[in-house]
Amino acid sequence: MRSTKILLTLGLGVLFGLQSFAQGGEGDGDGVGNVKINVFDRYEAKVREARKLSFQPNFEDTTTHKIDVDYDFAPRIVETDVELDPIPAALIKRVELERYPENMVKVGMGNFFTPEVGIVLANSRSNSLTWSLAYDHFSTQTGALRDRVVFNDNFTMENSLRAGIGHVGQRWRFKGDLDINLRDVSYYGIPQIPNVNESLADSDPTRQRYYKYGINTRYERITNRGNDAFRGVDVGYYFLHDRYSAQEHFVNAMADWTIPAGDIDIFMGTGFDYLNYASDSATTNAYAVRVKPYIRHEVNGIYFTVGLNINYVGKNATSTELTNGDTATSRLYFYPEIRAELPLVKNVLNIFGGWTGDVDLNGLAGISEMNPYIAPGVEIRETGANKVYLGVSGRISRRFGYNLQADYFRYSDRALFTRDSAYLGTGFDPYLRIEYADLDVLAPRVELTYHHPSGIEVSGDATYFVYNRQNDLLAYHMPDFKGGLHVAYTWKKKITLKTDFVVTGPRDAFEPNGKVENASMPTFYDWRFYTEYKYNDYLSAYLSVNNILNQDYDLWYGYPAQGTRFILGLAFRF
């Protein structure tokens, strides 16, 4: 009992002692020990933000430790038996390759007294020197419809001789060609006029000839060491004369250059042309200095050419028709040279367009090739031409291709051929004359092609022409439209078949004055056919047929074409 009282007394003493210690010392204020506690508000518990738990392993939670591994290598020798088969001896023997014919002789004959002859000679294959010689003859007469012209003798003859030589060196290549072309035609285009020119039927029509002799050379670089500016040069010359003492000399030279400009090259063409033409009634001396700088580049799939074509032309002309005597003129022709091509879808859709231009001194040689029935002593003028074009091309399928294009031409002094209605009415004048005109031509066209693996090739084209000439004059002898269908087929390399069907729209020969009939020529169709059968690689036979439909149409007003003409011939190659 006493012990219990003692324990109680000790417990109370300790309790009061602790309370006194917790209250702190004097001057401390409210606090617990040395920590001051200020109570401002009631305590409220807060919930911590949620933390995203990921079940994917984290490399930070991974402990890596390299395992110590000891490798013991015990080298051992393994004996093997190797038996190699001997390489068989190569069989070497001489095999004679097939020799392709290098020469050819062709001889044919047709109705309307139409012979044709062709001869081609050439040297064997060579890496450095080549030469060739070719001769062609073609002539025909009669066959024009007698009921529309006085003369039945529509004689035409052409002889051409071409000789060429070429040499290829280590850095340069040279090529030279000699051309002789002798052409004879008759002025048979005199329409019949009752009680006026019947007596001419018993005579021969007057003939004209154009004999031309020319030479052309090309010297060009075939390797590029990176610092060669000169690329090559073309030089040519020809001399022409006709039956009526007209003579013409023409010289031309054109050099090509390359000028490096950073990561692209500037291409430069520089040239000079000289023309001397003289006849009994007119003479012309003309020259042209040409400069053509341009660049070719590709940017983001667009291929383009940008440049200029600058031509300075000087001319001195005389003519019996000129009242002022000699006339001296000079003119600067300035043309852009812009071409662009954008293949939107390779081999399927290609867009192209451009703006180009050039000037041609013409000359009797070029004029007579277009129309041999011109009057002797014609006047010669240069012709300038601007061309703007835009189109799309590509393939519809693996076998079908297409080309849609629109061309716009602007000509200055374009040569047009016309019959003079006043002279034509006399019944004795066979000539066509030249009228130079400033002319605009819009020519949209479409072309389609088809190829079949069996060897069939088919193509078709159609062009529509819209002419605009000053003073509402006509574009003489130029058709309103033109189109054609062309088919070729080769069967087992034995038989070749080709046919062309061409449609030419109406043309106007001269400005109608109400006194002369048939000033307009109607649409005509020209169907031609050619076939060749090869007996072997050396001998073949051929047949050609012109004007299958026997169409009555005029080549030029008053000059009717021949009827159906056949030519059958043989070709021998050796």
Layout of helices and strands:
Blueprint (H helix, E strand, L loop, with lengths): L1 H21 L81 E7 L3 E9 L6 E12 L15 E13 L3 E15 L20 E15 L8 E13 L4 E15 L2 E15 L3 E18 L2 E18 L7 E19 L3 E12 L3 H7 L12 E13 L4 E19 L2 H4 L8 E20 L3 E9 L1 E4 L11 E11 L3 E10 L2 E2 L11 E2 L2 E11 L4 E8 L7 E3 L2 E2 L4 E9 L1
Antiparallel strand pairs: 1-2, 1-27, 2-3, 3-4, 4-5, 5-6, 6-7, 7-8, 8-9, 9-10, 10-11, 11-12, 12-13, 13-14, 14-15, 15-16, 16-17, 16-18, 17-19, 19-20, 20-23, 21-22, 23-24, 24-27, 25-26
By DSSP (H or I, 4+ residues per run), the number of helices equals 3
The CATH homologous superfamily name equals: TonB-dependent receptor, beta-barrel domain
Strand content: over 45%
The computed structural class is mainly beta
InterPro entries: Beta-barrel_TonB_sf
Subcellular location: Cell outer membrane
Signal peptide: 1-22
Keywords: Cell outer membrane, Membrane, Signal
What does this entry look like structurally?
This protein is mainly β and 574 residues long. It has a single domain (121-573), classed as Maltoporin, Chain A (Beta Barrel). Helices cover 6% and strands 53% of the residues. The longest helix has 21 residues, at 2-22.
Quickly list its features:
22-stranded antiparallel barrel, two-stranded antiparallel sheet, 574 residues, 3 helices, Maltoporin, Chain A, mainly beta, single chain, 27 strands, TonB-dependent receptor, cell outer membrane, Beta-barrel_TonB_sf
Short description:
With 574 residues, the protein is mainly beta. It has 3 helices and 27 strands.
